[in-house]
Amino acid sequence: MPGVTVDAPRGKTELVPRWKCDAGDYVAAAEISKDGRLCVVGAGDGRVLGVDLTTGHELFRQLAHEGGVLGVSLSPDGTHFATCGQEPNAKLWRATGELVRELPGGGAQWVEHVAWAPSGGRIATGAGRKVRVWTAEGQPIVETEPLPSTVSDLAWRADGTALAAICYGGVHIWPFVPGAKPRRFEWKGSLISLAWSPDAKVIACGSQDCSVHFWRLATGQDSQMSGYPFKPKALAWDSESKLLATSGAATVTVWNFRGKGPEGTKPIQLESHNGVCTRLAFSPKKGVLASGSQDTSVLLWEPRRRTQPIGYAFLEDEVTALSWHPEHRGLLGGDASGNLCFWEVA
Fold first, then answer.
1. Lower Cβ count inside 10 Å, N or C end of the chain?
2. Cα separation of 124 and 134, whole Å?
């Protein structure tokens, strides 16, 4: 069986596709609405697609960004979504595919990051060295002072009351509650990926130096996991904030934050991909982890129970996107050749 080393019995653990479709180009981003009805996909040819998650029927296909889409983010109520890409403006859309408003990047060549707050009232964009925050209607609220270097990732606190951004030099946090002050956690290196735990207690970052660094926000204590052969570009927390899955190799490394945390302990090692892991996503309802790889394979794991995959599937190129149905009813995957597939998951 190409792509994975585990001898999984066919017909028992292979995921069943509900539907497949062609995004037309490299799948740069994909997200599923909170009600599980719509998925929005951004492609390398600059188009954004809306697909009915139940049937796979294409609802719309619009040119969003001339140079290519870099990110998509759906509003929590599923009525709108925002996109960013290789042009100076992010864009706000209705869920039917109609453009509502452009969100200027402030002079940067590209708007590289977009994130809708979980509470629904705000949209964050990252362009160049600045972060901007907008209302759900696309009106500007906040523009930060320039960061020390280009913004490399954004993440909202789970309740939407704070926003984190990373760049070379550390983590910056801006609160959206009266009287609270911005915070900064310094790191002498280039941070490339960001994951804020659902309980809001820990921020973890992948680093250019092939390490994972994390901060405990209550105390400011920081720790580092090193020894990765490649840059850890994919990070994922489980819904209980107890497990942090990290890429940086063909092996998926999972750190346990129960009790005193991962310091001084051995991580869980999930070995079966032949190529470097490119995407990670924990199911929001169960302790099931999905991982995608350069070798085209998609694997499902239950890290607390076993270190062998419980399910597998294949795309046709490097896996570039993974997104779970909010009720654990399926998994959406996309690849570098534009293939999209939604698999049923028990």
1. C
2. 6
